[in-house]
Amino acid sequence: MYSERHSDPSDIRCLVAEPDYFDSNPDLIRPKKLLNPVKASRSHQELHRELLMNQKRGVGAENKPELQRVLEYRRRDQLIRQRKEEEEARKIKSPFEQQLQKRQQRLDELEREQERSGEEQENAPEFIKVRENLRRTSTFSNEKQAG
Description:
Elements: H1 2-5, H2 9-15, H3 21-24, H4 37-40, H5 42-57, H6 66-90, H7 95-123, H8 126-146
């Protein structure tokens, strides 16, 4: 620090330029250094004293601003979610789970096909609907005769 390097006051005087008016006339009024109104205020002095005490004790003020803490919290949560997803992807599914998944996919496909066919029938003209009904009745009557 500065005070460690320059412990001798004579060293400090040689570094600071002295004004010319000190030498010339002793009758002149010497200017006084103006006080900093912030440093002169009681609240600033108390705050400064408190900060020095906290620093000596090792108790710091809030180390990180609130925004930085929130961003770190979100990053940490995102990493945790990402790791969980990776673990689930790596996890080998049992044969039972695989079969259930296959069945679910087949059922979903059947539902989609039924929806498509229902939409096609709704959009079809009247004579096509009648023709399909005739086919159904003819196949139904053929099955009765065969059976």
